[in-house]
Design a protein that fits this description.
The chain is of the alpha+beta class and 117 residues long. The chain contains two helices and five strands, in the order E-E-E-E-H-E-H. The chain has a three-stranded antiparallel sheet with strand order 1-2-3. The protein has a two-stranded parallel ribbon with strand order 4-5.
Amino acid sequence: MTPLQDYLSGEVEVLIDGKIRLGREENATLYLPKTRFVEGTSCQWHALVPIDCMWMHSGPGPIPPPKYPDADLFRFVKDCKAVGGAVTLNVGIYQEGHMAPASVAQLGRLAAGLKSP
């Protein structure tokens, strides 16, 4: 981070129970932002979360199903939104420009859930 940065890139490897796992170890700390800004900075908190493919779909075959149960993903997005954090959900795309039906369905359920209290 630098003083010139106004948002965090926030690439997330995995969510556990609706929180970001900090590190690759099984017992790594789980994290959820408490405010819009990274502690001690004026840098807006942001998370880039892949929901099906890790970063992109390559090769033949189907895109994997969503990685997270609705409850975990939706809780994470709602909790981040509640403190003003930003979340980008990365969704795999086939070479023809289509997304996997299961991922589209999950995004639809998330959109509906965000509209309700």
